[in-house]
Design goal:
Elements lengths: L1 E7 L4 H13 L4 E4 L1 H5 L2 H4 L2 E6 L4 H21 L3 E5 L1 H5 L16 E3 L4 H4 L1 E9 L27 E7 L3 E3 L7 E9 L4 E2 L2 E2 L5 H11 L12 E8 L2 E6 L9 H15 L27 H19 L3 E3 L5 E3 L5 H14 L6 H38 L9 H12 L7 H20 L1
Parallel strand pairs: 1-2, 1-3, 3-4, 4-13
Antiparallel strand pairs: 5-8, 6-7, 6-9, 6-10, 9-12, 10-11, 12-13, 14-15
């Protein structure tokens, strides 16, 4: 194994950038890799110390890997490799209904939810750390935590970020070790666009009784959030907590520990710094050739400002805009981060060649996206305003058709923004591989 961290880039968008920033913050040798490279034998020809698979749709990652790529990852781990998956990357490592939906590294599957709202939970949760998983010295204090680090039963607690996570479905295999379990929400926990900490517990109980809506996290309590196991001579660690989340001290420290203990890497530090994509200066020259990409960044910032001005988007954290339920905020966040990352290094020769080939297409499609997205957001705002007195004035079907054309499907992407994001992803890949 070479002392390098590989990060699977396909279908990762903002989550891949978060993983990359964490590796760079720890000063680790790392590179972005594509599913096609893995399918062509990258992991056997030059096996890394660890393969990190970020969040993003597991199905899309599976499809990108294909049969050859999936078997290549299994062979790599079976021969002694290390697999670390976050959220969608964790789901990819599980056993699914068919080979085309998971890697089968872990015998467990993925559990469903009783309602869509239960999946739309995000922010920091206190997790109960299983005995032997960590020593107390590994975790720094969590200044935003609402609880003490002790759980009351003698177990250590950690404040860990979860962003719309899945859940594990245990299948009675004793070889899977649980490292941490969900406990209770921390102060910055949300359900969709509602800050849970601002709602009295009695109100949540009343809503359940009156409307049959359960917004509490009781169904998560005691459920695994991070698991670990062996596959052949290698190991996997699957986490529905995004340990790479910027400026999340306990999660970041646990990630540094995993990289050291599991992969033998040597992180220089235990903290991923805060991330403000809009504050990163673009390093592409202001030339006519580069103008479409530079303009796109400015126009995206203005689009987000429009959404915020009409109460469709709001400031959630330094790296994440929040959004009103139903608004495609995840796609807008990925676009914002992708434009910043694409411009943060001066273009390399490979990037220039790619941009020359695709510049005209980008210049043609981005204005269509921007205008369409603005029209859609304002139509959503109008529908909200007219809803109480004129509920049918703005057709819900028309809004859904607009959304699909511009933003694609919430889980599988597509639409105009999918075309834009694909070009940005390739630019970022070429830039980072040359840096």
């Amino acid at each position: 194994m070479n002392a390098e961290l590989y990060i699977l880039w396909d279908a990762s968008t903002i989550w891949g950038l978060m993983a990359l920033r964490a590796a760079q913050a720890f000063a680790l040798p790392c590179r972005l890799v594509k599913a096609q490279e893995i399918a062509q034998g990258l992991l056997s020809g030059k096996p890394p110390a660890m393969l990190l698979v970020p969040g993003g749709a597991a199905r899309l990652k599976c499809a990108a890997l294909g049969r050859a790529g999936r078997e290549a990852i299994r062979a790599y781990v079976r021969a002694g490799g290390r697999y670390l998956g976050f959220c969608g990357g964790a789901g990819l490592g599980l056993t699914a209904g068919s080979e085309a939906e998971g890697l089968g590294l872990c015998p467990w599957g993925r559990a469903g939810y009783g309602s869509r709202l239960q999946h739309l939970m995000s922010g920091h949760m206190l997790a109960s750390v299983e005995p032997g998983s960590l020593t107390p010295a590994v975790l720094p204090a969590a200044p935003h935590s609402s609880e003490e680090r002790g759980s009351g039963d003698g177990r250590m607690q950690a404040s860990l970020p979860v962003w719309w996570p899945g859940r594990f479905a245990p299948r009675g295999d004793g070889n899977v070790r649980v490292l941490a379990r969900y406990a209770v929400p921390d102060r910055d926990f949300w359900v969709a666009d509602m800050a849970l900490g601002t709602v009295p517990r009695g109100t949540l109980d009343a809503w359940r009784d009156l409307y049959g809506v359960n917004l509490s996290t009781d169904f998560l309590t005691g459920q695994p959030v991070i698991i670990h196991g062996a596959f052949g001579r290698g190991t996997y660690t699957l986490s529905y907590s995004h340990l790479e989340t910027p400026d999340s001290p306990q999660a970041n420290a646990w990630l540094a520990h995993l990289l050291s203990a599991q992969a033998g890497l040597s992180p220089q530090g235990t903290r991923v710094p805060a991330w403000e994509p809009d504050s990163e200066p673009p390093l592409w020259d202001e030339t006519e050739e580069n103008a479409p990409l530079l303009r796109a960044r400015i126009q995206t910032m203005r689009l987000l400002h429009t959404g915020a001005a009409h109460n469709l988007l709001f400031h959630r954290t330094h790296w994440l805009m929040g959004w009103r339920t139903g608004i495609p905020g995840a796609a807008l966040n990925s676009l914002r981060a992708g434009l910043s990352a694409a411009l943060r290094h001066p273009p390399t020769g490979e990037t220039r060649r790619y941009w020359k080939q695709h510049r005209a297409h980008f210049a043609a499609i981005f204005p269509l996206f921007r205008q369409g997205a603005e029209n859609y957001l304002l139509a959503e705002r109008l529908a909200t305003t007219l809803g109480p007195s004129m509920p049918d004035a703005v057709s819900a079907r028309s809004l859904e058709e607009q959304r699909r054309a511009i933003f694609g499907h919430a889980m599988t992407g597509g639409g105009l923004i999918g075309d834009v994001q694909a070009m940005l992803d390739e630019i970022i890949y070429l830039q980072e591989c040359a840096t």
